[in-house]
Amino acid sequence: MSKAAPLGPVPFGPVSYDATGALCLSSTPLAPLAAQFGSPLYVYSGAHISAQIERLQSAFAALNPLICYAVKANMNTHVIRHVASHGVGADVVSVGELRRALAAGVSPEKIVFAGVAKQPAELEAGLETGILQFNVESWSELEALNAAAARMGTIAPVALRVNPDVDAQTLAKITTGSRGNKFGLPFDDIPSLVQQMQTLPHVRLEALAMHIGSQLFKMQPFSDAYKRLADLTRHLSSVGTTLQRLDIGGGLGIPYAPEDGDGPDPVDLAAAATEHLAPLGLPTIVEPGRFIVGNAGVMIADVVYTKESYDHHFLLLNAGMNDLMRPALYEAYHHILPLQHSSAAPIPQELAGPICESTDVFAKQRPLPPLEEGAQVAFLTAGAYCAVLANHYNGRALPAEVLLSATGEAKLIRPAVSDADMIALEQAQA
Prior knowledge:
430 residues, Lyase, Ornithine Decarboxylase, Chain A, domain 1, eight-stranded parallel beta barrel, 11 helices
């Protein structure tokens, strides 16, 4: 039987309907995966992850950067291992993420340890491992790192994280480089801090670091921040401080909604970085955050019940805010599509979960074709900051995760973690 043209354009590269109307991730139908592994279910496309890394490597080729994957975006060790297979390093913010990066095969000399409240045991773990650098965010942290390195008889490699006080023009809750944020050191304080570091014999300044926020679509904030970083680097050089590299952060946005189109192009971000930083001749570190994995993932959920309440039509799902927290946490948008294409006219619907919280609502008045009980939907752009935020609230299981190979082979990379598993863990401590 001849195949018809694919149905219904969708706004995100790896997701499409095939000729039979089945929703696919990188050409792999999703419904059979839900039947095999259960639902709710996270599915990730290894092919899309690889393609995103290649886009970054190509865009930044002139700067020959070390790309460091943000482990906090998706910390499954199988995902990290797939990323690392492309020569990518890791950006970690805890000793737990450090262990995961190492377990997935990331070389210590490609690991950057960020975060504002690293505890002494975490500092010691990074020193023992021999990571590339600690991105330091306060004088107190410098003192703690110096003390830890002294105890271990070594010298800690330091990057001072600069807060450039630049408006990132993104959501307030994911802005990190403006006045009043907890992240980074005030721009004007850096020269004096560099001098003060001379009193700490077990730390060595090797770099400056900067990260102004997440999910940025406009290039001007990047350009402004990189210019400030270049000016500061030149000033330090003029007074005798030579740096070995610059950590230029990232935060490039990805599409969540249809109107986002394809999102910003990493070529434009690389151009802004190259304009201001290439003349310095220093190696660079790029931390692209969700860009690598965000659009590579979907979460599948079942419609358990439909419900009419006053003038609202509800789709009540088997997935809740414990499975995908972003909408409840900061009203984040996820595009939602049925796993089977429908030509029926869409109607406004409320998609909500089973959690006993009024905030357990994924979408309000979302236009979708009428769906029956037993239908399935996919939440798009669920590869980053989704499964990592899942929890056991209301005694619910953690959803399973599956990784698709380049050939579409499905591998279970984390089984669902049930309440029985948690009870057994608690009873083992009795």
